[in-house]
Structures are given as structure tokens and as C-alpha cells.
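Continued from yesterday's entry.
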Amino acid sequence: MELLYVWIENFRNINNKGLNFSNQYEINYDRLSNNLTINLLDGSNALKKRGRILKFKGDEINYLENFFSSEPLERISNISQVTAIIGKNSSGKSNIIDFILTAISKGRRDRLSPNYVLIFKKNDKPYFFGRTEGKSITTSKVECLEVELEKADINSEWETMFYSNVADNKEYLFEGSSINNCSFEAMNKLQSNKIRFVDSPIFSDTWQKLNPNNNPERKIRFIFNPIAFTELESAFIAEDKIEGIIKRYRKAIYQESTSNYNRFKYGLAVNLLSFLISKNVPMDDFLDGVQLVGQEGMAEAIATLNPKVVAFLNSFHHSEIEDLSESDYSLYNDLLQELESQNFNFGQIEKYSNSILVDFSNEFKDLIDNKQDLFNNPSLISHDWSKLSSGMRAYLNLFSQLYSVSEKVRGNSKSLLICIDEGDLYLHPEWQKNFLNDLIWFISHVFQSSKVQLILTSHSPFLISDLPKENVILLDDNCNPSRQLNEESSFGANIHQLYTKQFFLKNGSIGEFAKRKITTLLNDIKEMTEDNVELYQKRVDMIGEPVLRFRLQDELKKRLSQLSKETQIKWHKSEISKLTAS
């Protein structure tokens, strides 16, 4: 099943707007007559009518089938459609995605506007879902060619995913629904997806794409944050022995440890102990067995203290502890026991680093096998990529969440709608240029059993260059959509030419600060005096755009002609000297 069209009566800044998500058809909804028109892009009717049944003709000669295949053209693509919604900030891109995902996912539709229309295509037939004429979803209907469209059973037909790497922590209308929500805030609860992705068969190929030169300095390393331990350190501690334990672990982890293994082992042990302390778990017998040494009130040496801590944690009988299930506590304990029983190599320690870092080595991979969910508890411990650029992190965050959803839907016959809100954010222009190509490659490989439809938002021209004009929706400042069907194709267009389009840069293609400075210079040249000719010439020479520089140089010469002969001769000699030196 494929989403073809959405009409929204009222939602945030969207009022009575229809959006086409198909590169085959032009669909319009008239709310007054409650009728649809479905045409091919050339304006001819796209449907054939047999009695009370409507079917698509299927003879769209201009439609490029399997266009989004990552393989040679003869291969069938599992990506049915890609649509990019391009617009400036606050144009309504994110609102459109929020609306669609809310409408298509179970759980939050009652919060939508009274009337909306979604049109789908399945088995060459059009289907309708939504509300019209103020009626309920069950009783609403839409007609086309005097035939009532069949209702789409989207609850059983669709899986949905939302991804956003934007750290705005905003609330989405679809939160709490059936959607696979990978928003920035939600990803804090999906930490283990990163580890699972790195442990997956597709990761080595993905890493090769991002690190084609196999730079040995660029490697996958995780930084672990023992949240419970860190919070206890900053709190007031009334018990001397607990304070002594915290001091000893702080010194052992960040000052004395000579290996990542020790930092990780000690960090996990004191973190779980700190978590239990924060929950006011009784531990008098354990504390009686801990010795304080020295004038600083520090607990005994870590070599004797850590085994005591691990033994206590192992003997503690989990009851109802808030924020930590009994199964997760058991997994955590198993991990501590393995760390205590043998040594592991987690990579070379970094000098002067106050962090718990771990190389994602085979040893680490084997150790945490089937224990990844431990790192999903943001009130206990979290982890993240270490020492990677913001662009690399953005890529790996996106691919790790896509891989996680692919595991959930594997073998599922449902269609999959993936909405990615500004997925190319934080990427260097070179990676923005590769973004869609890499995304199609990855989705084609991990969602082989699913039919995928992609909706992307961006305010970059790179996506326009990568997509036929039929696959691009341009939003103006008032959220008015346009597909530019009458314009020449931008597919494969030069990025610099796209930037000159009025849609992106209405007031020229240079920065506003430079524009203001150049305008001021143009006016100031008229006031140039004998004493500051050299200064004005330097200001003209620094302008990089040749046409602007020529214009200003011409103005400077005009003013120069009004000054003394001596000043003109001096200027010409200076210009001859510059030419000779070049």
C-alpha cells in the first residue's frame, strides 16, 4: 500500500491544504462537493471505472518504475516512493509529518482536526481513510467519478517510523501512539539500539561507506556515563563509609586505572551500588565490613573493596525497586560477575581523559551479548558514541534506529512509512550530497521484506538535485505546497544553480553581513579623500565576487579622477607594482 495524497482542513499553520506524495498522479480534493479528482501528471484521467469499481489504468508511460532501486535498473526496488518536503524554517514541514503520522498510527487520531483525507493505492485501486463532513472515521466517505472509494484498513496495513536528530525536545502529537518513535528525546530510551547496530552484519559495510580510507584513528568507541554514581557524588552524604567508598572509586577509576577494562569494571560496580543507595536500600552489614583508611576518610584499597561491593550486589535480593526491573538487575549482576572473574581488553586508555571509554572489540561484543537492554535505563547508566564528528554521529544515530525498526518488522507483510525530519542536519556539504544515496542503499538492504515509502523534510537544495521534480514538495512561508510540475527538472542540477533560485535565497546569494558592508562601501567611496585611497582599495580587493569587485573598482576610479594628479599617479604605480608581482 502506498500513500498518494493528504488533505488537511486545519492543523497548526496548515489550512485547507492538499499534498501529493506520488510521482505518478495529481490528486485534488474539493471539500464542498466531497469529491476527488485523480489524474495523471499530463492532466488525463488516471482511473478506469467498471460498474462501482475504480482501478488505476496502469499505462503511465512517463512513470519510471523501480526508480529508487539501489541496484541496477532491472532489479525490483523495495522503496516504492520517496518524497522530499522542502521549505524554510517555520514553513510547516514538521507539522505535515506530525499530522500524517498521527493520522496513520493508532492512538492519537481523536486529537486531529474534524476533517482530513488520506488517499492510498493498493492492488491498483484507490482507497480512502479519514473524516469528512464532520462525520466519524467509520461513517465518512469520499467519492470519485460518482463512485464511493473503499476504506483503507490502515491499522492492519501500516507500520510507521519517525526519526529526528533535532535536539529541540518538542512534543509530537503522535507520541504515545503505535508509531516507532525515534525522536531526539525518545532516543535517550533507545540507547541499546546503537550497540545492536554495531553488532549487526550490515555495520561493517556501513562503516566502510563512512570511513572509506579506513582511517585507524576513526574507530567505534563508546563512552559510558554512570549516572547514579555521578548524581551521588554531587549529593550530600551523611554516612562516612559511603562517602569513603565514593572517594575511593573516584580515585581508582579516574586517577589510578591503567586500562579501560578497570575503569569499566569499577564504574559499573559503584554505579549499581550508588543506585541502591539512592533508593535507601539497607546495607548496614555490608558497610560494617568496609574499612576506612588515612586522614581523608577514604575506603580501603580498590583491590579489596571492589570484590566486597560485587559480593554485596550479588547477595542483595531484589524486591520492588523503582526504575530497575528484577530481570535487568539480574543481568547487571551477571555482567559484574564476569568482569570480576576475568580480564578483558577494551582498548588503550586515553591519557588525561576523565571518561569511561570502551572500544567495541570482539571481547566487549561477546561480554554484553544479550545484555544490551541494561544500557536503556537513563536513570541508571547511558552511553554514546565517543570522539566522532557531529555528522558521523548523526549518520550512525539514524542508521542504528533504522536497523532496530527493521528487526521489529522483519517478516511483517505490512507497508512501512518512514518519516525523517531534517535527517541531513549537522552533515558536512559532502555528506549532504551523499545523504539520499546512502539512505536508499541502507534501507534497501535492511528492509528487504518490507515495501517502504519515505518522506523526508529539509531546507537544503541537495535533496532537490537528487529527486525528480515530481517527488519534491516546495513549501512557501505560508505552507502553500507546490511541485513545480511546469518548471524544468532540477534532477541532477548543479547545487550552486539551485541556490540562486528565488525559493532559497530571495535577496541574493551572499551573506547579509557582507551585503551590508559592500553597500556601505559603495556609498562611502564617494567620500574618499587623498589620505585614504589605499584603505579603500584594500576594501575593494578583499571582495571575492568578480562582478561586484569590478563594479566597486569602477566607482573607485570615478572618485579617483576627482582627486589630485599626484594621488592618481601614486595609485596607478601601486596597481602596476601589484601586476608585476603577480
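--- second protein ---
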Amino acid sequence: MKLRTKSWLAVTATAGLVLGGVSPALAAGTAGPTEHTDMGVNGDAVMEHLQKISDISTSHADEGFRALGTPGYEEAVEYVESTLEATGAFDVKRQAFEHEQQKDGTVEVVVDGEKVDVNTASYTEATEEPLTGIPVVLPVDDDNSDLAGGQLGCSADDYDESAEGALVLASRGECSFGEKAQAATDAGAAALIIYNNDADNPDEELNATLGGRIENGTPTVTVTYKVGQDLLSKVEDAAEAEGAAENGGTEAGSGLAGGGEASEADDADETTGDEAEAGNDAAAAAVLTADFTLETEYVTSTTWNVIAETKAGDHDNVQMFGAHLDGVAEGPGVNDNGSGSAALLASAEALAKQPTDVDNAIRFGWWGAEEEGLVGSTHYVESLDDAELGKIKSYMNFDMIGSDNYIVGTLDSDGSDVPIPDGVNVPEGSAELEKVFTDYFADIDQPNVGTDFSGRSDYQAFIDNGIPASGLFSGADGTKTAEEAEMFGGTVGEKHDTNYHQPTDTIENVSKESIDIFAPAIGFAVHTLAYDLTDAPTDPPTDPTTPPTDPTDPPTETPTEAPDERALSIDPKTIEAPDFVSEKGVQVAATGCTADSTATMTVTPNNGKIEKFEQTAEVGADGTARFGVRGLDASMVDSYIGTYDVTVDCEGGNPLTGSFEVVAEGDGPGAGDGGNGGGGGDLPRTGNEALPLILSAGALIVLGLAMTLGSRRRRS
């Protein structure tokens, strides 16, 4: 499928985002693309790589699949590297880094004799020994029964003295998980449970990270909204029972004997004392208690990012694409994120097969330790100095593109569908990157929606450093709405990926339909950022070997003799730099070649700034081969100043050689001789001998323009 470029690209180029400036180059005979294409990337190509990644993961099921520090992840890295190296189009590097990995042992929480399903918070500390019979208490900042945001436990002041040595129960919200754990630590709590606050999804698990280890921190786990509400009710019921029992004991303890004999009073005192003691025992029995064990250890693991950059293209104008390669230990991670990784591999292979070199360098990144908190991508960005960061003009992220209950989502960097969360940086140019996808989908009538631009995936470090970003996403733990089901099908009320972070995230549960939609969109985005489009040639193009339809008027009386002299004409031989980067350029003609053969021109610059290149042309019936050459980048006009050796190799004799010179403005022909200087040439200019040039003048001009449209050299 081919799509014509949209007008927004011109705006983007002005901003220097996508198309940027190119290094000084000479125009060669092979022009670049006139419209963007998906390069043939399709679902089948992605699924081929995805099957390989799946096989690697499942073969290491007993070792944690493709999680951080596993043999499965290392094998996946090797597969990515070998695939890229086989194309010959990329410089491939493996970036090693270390990460402190958390590994859990026994984690068990029992409240009021019943086991509670919990998840361990990332970066939590362990219990030194099992905690038994500890009280369960709540923050005192507010009553959360109205779900208005109370009982948050965001500071130590949100607790009273009852938190000391207790298991505290706090709601998600208002502040970070790390701040809640710090507040519980400061209040002296023995353990902390954070429950989810999503009443619309009561069984939604809460995967929390504390953001870093807290010295002597309170061991922390999380539970669902439903489990949290059950625990909350138990704590509140126990508190009411405790209050009632304490009141009963107090009243009994203050009873008076009266109206009887002393012995009767003594008996009454004894009775009320027993009642008080019973009341206190009842109050103690009403306190909700728990047993809490959390075993976890931290192991430093070495892992890797894989970085691949095109050998061709402007390496000061890098367009980057990324996906995380690691998964979770709970499952094979085929959709999350084998799917995004496989799509990058298919796109890289397609890019390597394109007929012309890229204009802008394309850099691919496969990230490690994403599931540990975006560690790999963050490490990569932080490893770059300001100069290297400045070379990256854009970043596109692909994290899950095959969800079984999928949506077609673009990272909503303009906030048109989903408001940008507070505190999220949106670098200028991000909206234009999203438009690559939305325009593509509009052209093929594919419904799509914006998704949270929240920094939840590997683009976070890039936007934090001012690099524009966008990407695609088929959904994870979000819930499909009726509107989304109308657009994409699927089941309302179910997660977008019902296998998210589960053992069932297998290749059998990946949506091929979703992959078929996303794969060409990713290929199209890579092509769009890799190539600057050239103007289409004239329609129909002028054939330089065919003379004009109308005969010369008046016709010549004698036939034109075929040139028998083998010579090279370079016109002009001296040209000012501004003219060299204009439509004028330099025209080269080789005569005395064998008709209907192919001639090759080689231009060798002697200024050290421009690359040597070749151009081919067909020899006409008159034995002449014609070429055109000019500079491309008018903004770097002075870079072209210098001499250029020209060699034309054609059948019929030895190679023909010559040269031309590009000089500064004002130093060219005619600067000091009244304008009578010129580049000259070796072809006849008058009389009947000039007729071949006159007849072909129009064709030569068109040919020269066509020859100079591109900025690329044909791949060898």
C-alpha cells in the first residue's frame, strides 16, 4: 500500500523534527521515493518473528521465561542481534547495564484467620521474621466510606499511636505508593497493605512500585478494591465491637452497692469487678489481628539493551523506534512485549531491502528491564551526553500490539481524546508524530482512538529529555467500553488484554487481526521518518533518446553525421557555488560511445566533504551519453567549493576524463572579463554539426533535472 505524503510534513520539516537538515550531498541518478509506503510490512512478517520469540520464551518456562536475568532473555537478545546483522544494513551494538532485581520467597498474609491474596510491592523490604497476632488498624486522616479520598496514609500524621507495631490498611490515591510506605515507616507500622481504589473494577490487581528501596522500610503488599473493602469492613466492625465492650466494662467497673448489709455490698463489688474484667477481655478479643510474612531479596543482574542504527543516512538527524524485549516471570510475554519487538524486527528487515539509502538515520532500540520500572530505556537515555541526545529528533514506542480484546490506540500526545496527566512533559513535535498514524489510519478508513500519554512505557525517559514521542498500543489492563467495542469488536467490560502479565500470554492468545492492523502502520511510520520525498518526474517523462515530434523548421538540407570523435564535454567547467546548488548544475556529455549501451559516470570530489558517487545513462543512437550533477543543500553552499574529477566509462574506447570546479560567488567566469567567460565544452557549436545538440536541447534540460532530483546513491 502506498500513501501520498500529507501537507503536515512540510510543517514538521520546518520545525526540524522529522525531516531535519541533510548533510551536503551530490545528486545521483537514482531518485528517492515520491510517496511513503508501508514497505510491505504485514502481520505474517511480524508473526514469523513472534513465533521465534515465543519459542525462546516457552523453552525457558522453568527459568522465568524472558524476565530480567534469565537465560530466556539473553537468548532473545541473541536472536534480535543475529536477525539485524544478517541484513547488513545496520550497526548493531549490545549495551550492558546492571540492575538490582527483587526476588520473592514466601509471602503470606492472614487476617482474622483467613488468607488474603496479595501482591508484593516492588522495592519493598522484607519482614525480619514472621509477624504474628499484630493488630490491624486504619489511618485516621478521614473516613473513606464515601470514597472521597480519605484513609490515604500519605504522611505519618495520618496515623495515631495505634499504628505502632501494627498492620496498617491504606487506600490507593493522592500520593505515590512510595510516599505511603514512607509514611507507614515513619509512623512505626510493622506492615502495610495498600488497596486499589477502582470501584468500577473491584477485582483489578494492584501492581505497585515504591520507586526505590526505603531504609528500614515497612514491608508493603497490595490487594484489589474488593479485598480492600472486605478488610476495611472487618477493621471497622472490630473497632465498633471493641468500643462497645470497653464501654460495658467501664460501666460495670463504676457500679455502686447500696441499701444493703456490708456483706451484700462486698458481694456486689465482686460481681461488678468480674463484669469489668469480662468487658476488658471482650474488648481485647474484638481487636482484629493478622499474621504477616514477606520474604524478598535483592540480586544484582547484568542485562542488555540492543541498539541498531542504519549505516546510511544522516547520523546527526536520528529518528528512533523502540520496544521492550523483556517480559514478566509469570508468563511467556508474547504480546507483552514480544509483539512490539517482532514488529520492529520486521520493519528493520523491510527497511534494509529498500532500493535507496535512507536520508535520516534510523535507530532501533530493544529495551531490557522494562518490567522492572523502565530501567533499560532510562539507562540508555541517561548514558547519552547532550550532543548525542540532540541528534535524536523523535522517538516512537510500540508496547503491545496484539491484545486479544484490542483497541487501535495512538499515544494521544495532543490530548484530543485523553487529557494529558498533570506533570507529564509533552515535547513540541509529539503531536505531529501522532499524526503520522492518525493520517495513515484515516487514509485506510481504520478507526482508532487516543490512549493515555502518561509516560507509562519506554518513551518516558525520552519525553523527560525533550525528545518528541508517540507510538501505538493495543491495550493492556484497561477495560473495553461499549464505544470501543462498536469500533473494534470484542467484549465490553473485559480487559483489552485478558492475558496481561499472566501465564496465558501465549502466541495462541495473540490477536492476528490486531497484528495485521498495526504491522503496516509501523512500517509506514519507519518509512516516513527515514525518507525525504522527492518530486515526481514529469508525466509523461521526456525520453532523451527520442527527438521532438515536430521536425526542425526549416529542416536541414543535409543529414547530420554521427559524431566519430570520442570526447567528453563538461559545461560549465567553472561554476559558482550558488549556481551549483540551483537547478543549473553541471551538464556532462560523452560522445563516441557505442549506441544503445550503458555509460557510467564517476564523480570524485577533491574537497574532502562530499562523497564520491556514480551515475549511469543509456547511450543514444547518436553515440552520446548525457549526465547531470548538482549540489543538494543550498544551506551549506560553501561545502561544495572545490574541484571534481569526472570519468565516463562507455563502450567504444578508453574511459573519458575531465573535471570541473565549484568556486565561491563572485569568483566564477565573467567576474573580471565583462561576462564573456564560460565553461566551454568540446562539442561543436555551429553549423550542421550542432544539430544533434539543438534537437536534443529540450530533452537534455529535462534529463538534467530528472537526474538531479534524488539525494541517494543506488545500493551496490
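Residues 31-100+300-530 form a domain with the Aminopeptidase fold (CATH 3.40.630.10). Residues 225-253 form the longest helix (29 residues). Will compare against the first tomorrow.
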